[in-house]
Amino acid sequence: MKIGFVGAGNMGQAILKGLITSGFSKDDLLAVTKTLESSKKISQEFKVNASNDIKTIKDCDVVFLGVKPQNIGEVLPEIKISLKNDALLISLAVGIKTESIEKIFDNKVKVIRAMPNTPALVGKGVTGLAKGANATENDLEVAQKLFFSIGKVVVVDENLIDVVAAASGSGPAYYFYVTEAITQAAIELGLSKDVAQVLVNNTFIGSAHLFENSNEDVSDLRKKVTSPKGTTLAALENLDQNNFKEIWKDALTAAIKRAKEISNS
Asked: Does domain 3-156 sit in CATH 3.10.180.10?
């Protein structure tokens, strides 16, 4: 199976690295970038075939579409000219419906939307998949196999893929944002920057490892840290009084709204 990447930014490179680590032959991998300079860089770093000519995807069985949503309109007609009739197109573009892609291909292309996240860079990502009208269950299995190389995979209906993007695709940014906020609060309350960063960063990392290695759900683990009438309970009650959970729902709703705006633009 020959696999091509049209656009090889951070996410494309993460998937490329995952495939290589999982044992895919480098000879069967191709990256197509916008410039000759960037294609040479990819070729040197990953030891795969790379080009700035989109026509080179003509022999690929699977093509990852990794260009930015705003560039989809100019890239897809070029892909249409060279893509094999039975090739599978996997789109990483936020907010771009499979129907919109299929329309450009006269409804004769198999499309799967994928929403991975940046922990894929270290093999700890999670990807949401949704298949278009022409993609088969076998195509979905192929996509799952590919994305298992960078972490876990879930399959959803396409009408939920924007929720996946909001909850998981953007999720790492939320984690980093909360880390920043708690660190800043600790500094303002007297800790040095270095001490605050060590404490907060490693608390998050350690908690994630604890959760990963536990059979308990996240609520049970939280309750174990929350003693009656204790300091943790005081902090959590303050968050609840300030509608912390509703704030997160509003944040995800804003992300979903933006994805739909991109889809309609």
From this structure: no
